[in-house]
Structures are given as C-alpha cells and as structure tokens.
Amino acid sequence: MITHTQRIKAALEGKILDRPAFAAWGPHMNLVDRNAKDFARATIDYQNSYHFDFIKVMPNGMYFPEAFGQKLKDAEYVLDETCWNTQVYRINDPHEWAKIKVPSMKEGAFAREIEAVKRIVDYFQGDVPVLPTVFSPFIWMGEMTGGFNRKDVIVSHFKYSEKYAKIGLEIVNETNEILMEEFIKAGADGFFFGYQAGMAELMGKEMFEEYGRKYDIANIEKIKDKTWFNLAHICHGNAELSEWFLDYPVDAFNWADQHPGQHSLKEMRALTDRVLVGGLNHSDNGSYTDLSVIVKSPSDLSGSNRETVKAHIKKKVQQAIKDAGPKVIISGGCLWGIGSLPRFPLWEEVMEEVGAEMNAEASYTG
Fold this sequence. Notes:
By secondary structure, the chain is of the alpha/beta class. It is 47% helix and 10% strand. It contains 14 helices and eleven strands. Helix 10 (239-242) links the parallel strand 8 and strand 9 (252-254). Helix 5 crosses helix 6 (151-160).
C-alpha cells in the first residue's frame, strides 16, 4: 500500500504513483487549539477523516505572541477565531522591543505546540508528513503589535524606530530558529512557512529585503538539511509580489492561484521547477468575519448536486495536472471554510478516479 509520504516524495521527484497527491487545511480548531492533547486528537481525527497527503498543523496564529505574553481570550464557539481574540498586544510601544527575551520551550505556549506535534508524529509513524506552521519573523512581529488589520503599526516601527525594531527582530528570529529545532526533535518532516505578500507590499521592496527576506532565508537554511518537505505559503498580495519569494530555498509553493490578479499554475510553472500546490479555489467570496459566508464557504466544492460538483472538481484537478505537470499537489490557496468539509470525501473520490484513469492510460500507451 502506498503511503501519503510516498506520494509527496514522488511529487518532489516529478512522479505520480497511484494518484496525484492532495491536501487541505481549515477551518481553525478554535475550541481545542490551546490544549496539546485536544489539539493533537482533533488533528489526528481530521487526517483520519479526509486522508490528505500531508498534515499542515493548524494552530491559531497567536501561539507565538502568546509565548511572549500576549493576552488572548478563549474561543467561545467553533467559529470564534482565536486570532481575533487578542485582548492586550505584547508590544504597545516600539521601545518595548528592547525588553523581550526568548521564551522557554519547556512551558507555556511553545511547550504546548511542541507536545501537540509530537503526539501527531507519534500517531502516524511516518506514514503522513507532518508540517508545523511557522510564520516569518516580520509577521510574528506584526501579530505582536496590532495583528492582521493593523499591519501598518509594525511597518511604522521598522521605519521610525529602527534601533528598537531591529533588537526585537533579532530576538524573534532567534526564537523562531530555536522553536523549529524543537519541532524537528519532535519529529516534524518540514514546515509550512507562512508569508504575507500583502504585508511585504506595505513594507516596500527595500524594507522587505532588510526585515523580511534576509531572515526568512536564514530560517529555512537553518533547518533545510534536517527536513525533507518545506512549503512556502504566499498569502494575499498579487502575481508580482509572489515572485519576491520564488528563490526561497523551499520544496513547494502554495498561493491563491485561482484568484484574480494571481499567477495561474501554468504561469507559475514557467517561473519555477518546485512543486506547485493548488488548482482549486478554496473561497469564491471569502470573508474572515462574516459568519454567513464562513458557514456557506463558497468554493470549488460548493453546490447541491453531487454529480455536478464531482464533475467540476474533476475538471479542475485534471486541468491543474495539465498546467503544473507531475510536480503538483492538488489543494486550495489557503484555509478552507467549515462548509467545505462535507465535500472533502467527494474530492478524495475524484483523486482516486483521476489516478486510476492516469494509470490505465499509461498501461495502454505503454
């Protein structure tokens, strides 16, 4: 029996085994993601339900700031996003960057995340690649000063309080590297690196080179010989901005290839020989705060008629393979909404059928 790990390794080599690899992540596990045992169990159940070819560990985006002392409110219901529940930001004045220290990996938020990864790795015993989620140091700093909706705050620190921001950046970067080492000790196969191209645009190319890119590449270089599957997720931005990341030393790229203004799989294949992760639209009309949109989760998996939805998914999967070639993992461009979950088994059914058809054709022509 072919394992999920074997399928991902085949994709890295430009091969397709019994079927193309596929993967999804989302929604966030808001009610359980601040308890290692519960979070690991939820992740294991998610994988056992949908049989994806790698596990993108889905912590809330605030675990890193939390380790530094950011105050969060517990989620009250399943769609109450922890990432929106900051009560007190860790850094409220740029001078505070000079006072932070690397947090302990043995207690608190970091210990929790490391334990959860170890529990997941121990359960799957190498059959499924496990990728903890780690953001760029400049993104972590943005989360510590104002979050996704106030990205201008950290940019102003970089611009007007360079002395203190650079002190903070060195500490955050050191923490990131220590944390990744601990994840590797726990058995991680690689990392899901999150990069916000939209924030890079706000910084501008020169500032991004100094405060973002330099540290991102150093982070990857630090761990790439100890891992085998590292994926760069390029979030938001546009086609031009996504190209700022294409020489990062990772194994795969993921971005919202189905969204207007972004490079298609075919266009990106002309720019890189790395594995491309995409092909399906995870959100036609996405909103992180509108509950009606979150629940409906309009996407390539939406629709009331099973066979119509299946035919649509199949067409998109076949086109993705045609455009990206065998170095492809079928996925969405970001987090899937809760309304997409019931269609994940149908998506798996499509992948099995596509694989069977590809192998039958290969046998016939061979």
